[in-house]
Amino acid sequence: MTQRVAIICGGRSSEHEISCISAGGVLAAINRTAYEPILIGITKEGSWVLIPEDHTMAIVNGVLPSVPQNAPAVVVDVAGFSSGGKDLKIDIVFPLLHGPYGEDGTIQGLLEMADMPYVGSGVLASAVAMDKSFAKPIFASHDIATVPGIVVKEGAWKSSAAAITKEIAGLGYPVFVKPARGGSSRGTTKVKSADQLPAAVAEAHRFDSKAMVEKAIVGSEIECAVLEIDGAPQASVAGMIHIDSRFEFYDFEAKYLDGATSIELPAPIDSAIAERIRNSAIKAFLGLGCSGLARVDFFLSEKGEVIINELNTMPGFTATSVFPKMWAATGIGYSEVITHLLEGAQKRTNGVLGN
Question: What is the pTM for the complete model shown?
Answer without folding.
Answer: 0.91
